Amino acid sequence: MEMTLILLKPDTIERALIGEVISRLEAKGLRIAGLKMMQLDDAIIDEHYDFLTDKPFYPEIKGYMSRNPIVAIAASGANAVKTVRALTGATDPQEALPGSIRGDLGLTISGNIIHASDSLETAEKELARFFKGQDIYDYTRPCDGIL
Predict the structure, then answer these.
(1) Could you name the CATH architecture of 2-135?
(2) Is residue 48 annotated as part of the catalytic site, yes or no?
(3) Rounded distance, CA 78 to CA 89, Å?
(4) Which of 71, 86, 96, 125 is disulfide-compatible with 102, CB 3.0–4.6 A?
(5) For every one of its 147 residues, what pLDDT tens digit does the chain have, with 9 covering 90 and above?
(6) How far, in Å, CA of 79 to CA of 65, rounded?
(7) Single pTM value for the model
(8) Which of 115, 117, 123, 131 is catalytic?
């Protein structure tokens, strides 16, 4: 069973889409193992986007990610990273397939609803950044045996 990080970005909160996105994750069989709303500060944004800090558009990303809270989700399931990436869709909502979260709900590339870890290695680092051990829960659901 894999675990991955998902961030519901400020536009998800602003457009009242938290429940819609979580419903799609759960409908696909993913288990919400951790969930919290938080306001990101400069330090965590700089750490999370360290590979973009030298880009000219980075100040826009930083402003976007700090303008309102985000919802951090630790999701687990079989092939969780790959499953969540497929559900998420292409970074640019205009290129994302219909049926994907960004394809159906994203409006612009700078307001694209959701972040999802791109590999198991990245997921491990990102989960540690947003969740402490006691913030992630392991539990069973009656439907787990039939999924």
Answers:
(1) 2-Layer Sandwich (3.30)
(2) no
(3) 18
(4) 96
(5) 899 999 999 999 999 999 999 999 999 999 999 999 999 999 999 999 999 999 999 999 999 999 999 999 999 999 999 999 999 999 999 999 999 999 999 999 988 999 999 999 999 999 999 998 789 998 888 877 655
(6) 27
(7) 0.93
(8) 115
